[in-house]
Design a protein that fits this description.
The protein has 271 residues and is an alpha/beta fold. It has a single domain, classed as 3-Layer(aba) Sandwich (Rossmann fold). Helix content is 48%, strand content 14%. It has ten helices and seven strands. The chain is globular. The relative contact order is 0.14.
Length: 271
Amino acid sequence: MSEKALEGRVAVVSGAGANIGEACARALAARGARVILADINIDGANRVAEAIRADGGEAMAVKLDLLDESTIEALFDTVIDRYGRVDILHNNAANTRMEQMAADGPIGEMTAEVWDAAYAINTRGTMLMIKHCVPHMIAAGGGSIINTSSGVSILGDIFNPAYSSSKAAVNSLTRNTAVQFGKQNIRCNAILPGLILTHLSREMMGEEQLKMLARHTLLPRLGAPEDIANAVVFLASDAASFVTGQIFSVDGGITTHQPYVGDVFANMGLA
């Protein structure tokens, strides 16, 4: 793929003010895309946009609240007013606030408020972004929508059932979007990250838990935000022009194996 594979294209990235979203916005800009960084954390989005511009890219930050549909409409109005088109939409924003994830525990103790808070941003917000983006993509002759889901969307877990199931709904939404708009040359795919080492994941997990997850990862390292960014760039590009409706795991193989493999590795001295 050429260094300017996305030259002239306009990309909207939600949750772009830090962590995975930041890496994806930077990667898209490095390939030539004009990037709109949409985030409720406008200070973070401005910081990343300034860094992209300092590296010679084109970027602007727009405040976005996925709980408020009017800000989603305003976001795309701003993009169209400035660039006249949208070619790439990366729905990366999610409700991963520390207090939300801490309260997202046993189903028998789950409150409706915690459950609804996960779905309101992770699923409803993603749907609304697609709703307001698709007409502009159709007008531009097509585009690529990339949703950030999660590895936990396809597996049961002890923790965070609201988050996990809301991301499973994103997988279904991805396939439905691909079906409904494929004939308009709009592709829609989802990426399922495994454990990605960000400031947030390090804050939420102790070293012992990170070591345990590393033991179950097939590759000899944990993930980095750039691993997700590389997948986003591929799905946004013409290299993936015949790829739609797919759910891609980018997780070092952690969802690939039998549950005892990590222990076998440890017994063999490989973990």
